């Protein structure tokens, strides 16, 4: 199994813990954690594409 797949549950855990330490309402925690999770995954995909583009034909 590729180690990259472990980044998705790690991003979910980080976003949940980060937001749970800042807010008390469950609705706010889930909403903001979901948004943060999506932002983290999109950022990782952008970096992956950029690195793939830069390393093409090396």
Task: Report the radius of gyration as a whole number of Å.
Answer: 15 Å
How much strand content do the residues show?
A: under 5%
**Arithmetic mean of pLDDT:** 95
How many strand units? 0
* Cα separation of the termini: 25 Å
Note poorly predicted spans. Answer: none
The main sheet comes to: none
Describe the structure.
The chain is 74% helix and 0% strand. It is built from 2 helices and no strands. Helix 1 runs antiparallel to helix 2. The chain starts with 6 loop residues before the first helix and ends with a helix. The model has no long low-confidence stretch (mean pLDDT 95).
Short characterization:
The chain has helices spanning 7-20, 26-54. It has 58 residues and is mostly helical. α1 packs antiparallel against α2.
Q: Main traits of this protein?
A:
mainly alpha, single chain, 74% helix, 58 residues
Give the topology.
Layout (H helix, E strand, L loop, with lengths): L6 H14 L5 H29 L4
């Amino acid at each position: 199994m590729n180690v990259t797949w472990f980044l998705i549950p790690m991003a979910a855990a980080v976003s949940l813990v980060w937001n749970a330490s800042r807010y008390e309402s469950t609705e706010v925690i889930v909403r903001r954690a979901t948004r943060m999770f999506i932002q983290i995954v999109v950022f990782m995909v952008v970096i992956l594409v950029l690195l793939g583009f830069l390393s093409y034909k090396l």
